[in-house]
Amino acid sequence: MGSKDNKTRKKWQDYSGAQAGKAEANFLKAFTEYFEGTSYQIRAKPNEFKDLYVNVSLSSKVLSEIFNPDVEITKHGITPDYAIDNLDSGKTLYVEVKRQDGWVEGKERKAGRGNAHERSNKFFTPGLLATLRKQGKIMGDGTLPFWTVFQGDITRDPCRVREITLWYEGYQAHYFLWRDNTSPLPVIEHFNQNLKHLLD
User: What CATH number matches the domain at 3-199, 3.40.580.10, 3.30.2310.20, 3.30.2130.10, 3.40.630.10?
Assistant: First the structure.
């Protein structure tokens, strides 16, 4: 184990010990504090894809069949919730944090009707996958260039948990059901055990 690995291991031990009792359930705050003094950083609302769709080429046939406004489209893209960068390797993992209601004790089944979890699936599409891989420099079968963290009652909803489990089959490392978000330790531990190595 190299000195860089020892440094983040020491940071994890310090964080899990001294900070565990008072840590707030805030993804950005937790990772900002955890990464302090390391080669990792977390960025909120990374803007590298804000114009992603602007220059998508369409055939003349398609252009003749759609609305073409007089005003130039200069901003049309996506903005992930967060990006986790390894400043040494230059690699980036993109993160979506989705909070959603769900069907749990004391609620009717319709409480789980939201679709935030479905909207996060855009990152599975071939074009976005290729774009995120290229930008984040995370390649290879069995890995994804993104991580989705679910919060709220959806993490205990019997229907939504089954949906998410099927969607991520074979890619279990790339989602986390943050059921007890009063502590950031489980989500940081998931990152360390399952995703951190992708950024080396």
Answer: 3.40.580.10
